[in-house]
């Protein structure tokens, strides 16, 4: 981002101010509790520092790489190959908030409930391979096709679903 004076603005050197373990702890706390970023406990680094790393790792693929490495480690500890050969897929309709944008929600015709659908593909151990969130009006076949595409990209050894 450029400053009006023409100088380049860079994020503050957060690595110096906060231990990386504390940043990870704060991200894990937020993921586990689902709290808003501004309500992180005061003994954790400030939300601006935590969200900076969260956004950076999400955007550059670091978060997905960590997820894949942990999944492979769990699979190997259970004496299975790194990548699965089969996935189990399912979708679920979740009621949307009244404040949710209309473009991202829809009406599930089967259940007659408004909201979104989440589709998940897991391996036989229950570890997430792929996930997708769409409007509830999207048909399960379309969700399944998207999940299969994402599962094939994430784990090319998948042959059964």
From TrEMBL:
Q: Which Pfam families match?
A: DDE_Tnp_1 (PF01609), DUF4096 (PF13340)
User: Which InterPro entries has this protein been placed in?
Assistant: IS402-like_dom, Transposase_11
Q: What region holds the Transposase IS4-like domain?
A: 83-152
Region listing for Disordered, in residue ranges: 96-116
List UniProt keywords, sorted A-Z. Membrane, Transmembrane, Transmembrane helix
Q: Where does the source fall among the domains of life? A: Bacteria
User: Which residue intervals are annotated with compositional bias (Polar residues) in the record?
Assistant: 96-106
- The record places domain Insertion element IS402-like at 18-67
Q: Name one GO molecular function term.
A: transposase activity
Residues passing through the membrane, by range: 120-138
Q: Name one GO biological process term.
A: DNA transposition
The name this protein carries in UniProt is Uncharacterized protein
Source lineage: Bacteria, Bacillati, Actinomycetota, Actinomycetes, Kitasatosporales
